[in-house]
Every structure is written in structure tokens, then in C-alpha cells.
From TrEMBL:
N-terminal signal peptide: none
InterPro entries noted in UniProt: Cellulose_deg_GH3, Fn3-like, Glyco_hydro_3_C, Glyco_hydro_3_C_sf, Ig-like_fold
Native species: Enterococcus casseliflavus ATCC 12755
Protein name: Glycosyl hydrolase family 3 C-terminal domain protein
GO biological process, one term: carbohydrate metabolic process
Domain Fibronectin type III-like: 145-214
Length: 223
């Protein structure tokens, strides 16, 4: 069927991440429906026919091959970086026969629309951080999208995940509509726990990463 040149969409039923490297190459797009239940057929038909637009994002990472496992979003940074031009190859973390990148990362999810976003700024208060951003629906199709906000802190008093999901924002758009949003984030979201189970918030620079579709933009905030 692939050789006919017709666009092919694969509908994937599964309850867990799978290695889909060979399967993905056979299709122009994949629709992951998990185990949708008795009304799943209607929902799938609405998505495939364009009556509804996909909105969901992956809650798990899908690897390219079994050899990459364990593979997840909130991994700790390593002393052997994935890429670093200042070091010779023997000090880098990589595979000889495979990419370091997953096939589909945590938070991946496409839509029939296209969105762009930009940071507008931030304000730090005694108990909260106010994050402001603007998002625009670039297409002529009404749709929803999920804005993902990740926290990054390097250097830190203790090793923290390379990126940590701290908030999400589901927004509905009319065609070509633009919206400005403000998110009030409690400072408690910046907490980390030491080896004794005690929680800490350290002063310093925190980086917030906004992910829309497959695009990412960074904002630095000093506490």
C-alpha cells in the first residue's frame, strides 16, 4: 500500500510504549488511541475525518530500540554529555549503531493546526512566580493545544532532572486567533528534596522552557 503513493494513517492500539521504528516508516502519520473503550470508534472516526483535531500529548517516551531503555523525560544530567564539541568522542555518551534520541519523546503530539508561542516576561513575588506568554493559532482551523512548561536549573545545589514538567495549559483557539496567558506558579514548585528527605528552594537562575507542538522557547528567571 505504501508503494501506491497514497497517504497512509496508522491507528495504533496499545497500552504501553512500543518500539515502532519500522512501523513508523510505513505510514505518513500515526494516531495513537491507546485502549479507547466502547465509544472509541466514534472518536477515531471524528479525528480521521477532520471533524475534530488531535490535542493530546504523549505521557510516555517511545524508544527507537530496546537498547535505549530506560529512556524518559526527567533524566538526570550526566558527566558524559550527549554532544560536546570540546571533548573527544570517547568521553561522550552515545551508541555506535543507534541515535540517542527517542522515536517519540514525552510530550510529543501533533495537530491539524500549527501554533507559535513567545514569552512576554515574568514577575517574582514572595510566594509565586508570574509567567506571561503569547500563543497564536497560525492555521485557518479552530483547534485546541496543550502548552507544556518545563523547569530546568543548572547549576543546582543537588543534581536535578534535565527538564521537569511543572505545568500545562489547555487553550482553545478560533482560526488565526492569538491569546495572551498568565500563569501563577507557586514557589513550592521549585522545591527539591535532599538525601535526608528535607525540602529546599535555592536562590539562583531558573530556566523555564515552553513547548508548543515540537517547538521550544526558553525564559530565564532569577529568584
Amino acid at each position: 500500500m505504501k508503494k501506491t503513493g497514497k497517504p497512509l494513517i496508522g491507528v495504533l492500539y496499545t497500552g504501553r510504549p512500543l518500539v515502532l521504528t519500522q512501523v513508523e516508516a510505513l505510514f505518513d502519520s500515526l494516531l495513537l488511541v491507546w485502549y479507547p473503550g466502547t465509544m472509541g470508534g466514534i472518536g477515531i472516526a471524528n479525528l480521521l475525518s477532520g471533524q475534530a483535531s488531535p490535542t493530546a500529548k504523549l505521557a510516555m517516551t517511545f524508544p527507537r530500540s530496546e537498547g535505549q531503555i530506560p529512556l524518559y523525560s526527567a533524566q538526570l544530567p550526566t558527566g558524559r554529555p550527549l554532544t560536546d564539541s570540546e571533548h573527544s568522542d570517547r568521553f561522550l555518551s552515545k551508541y555506535r549503531d543507534e541515535s540517542n534520541e527517542p522515536l517519540f519523546s514525552f510530550g510529543t503530539g501533533l495537530s491539524y493546526s500549527s501554533f507559535t508561542g513567545e514569552w512576554l516576561g515574568s514577575e517574582v513575588f514572595s510566594e509565586t512566580i508570574q509567567l506571561a506568554y503569547r500563543v497564536k493559532n497560525q492555521s485557518a482551523t479552530a483547534a485546541e493545544t496543550v502548552i507544556q512548561l518545563y523547569l530546568m536549573q543548572r547549576p543546582a545545589a543537588m543534581v536535578r532532572p534535565s527538564r521537569q514538567l511543572i505545568a500545562s495549559d489547555l487553550i482553545s483557539f478560533a482560526p488565526q486567533e492569538e491569546k495572551e496567558r498568565r500563569l501563577s506558579l507557586p514557589l513550592s514548585e521549585l522545591v527539591f528534596y535532599d538525601n535526608q528527605g528535607k525540602k529546599h528552594i535555592t536562590k539562583g537562575t531558573y530556566r523555564f522552557l515552553m513547548r508548543i507542538d515540537q517547538k521550544e522557547t526558553m525564559l530565564s528567571v532569577t529568584i
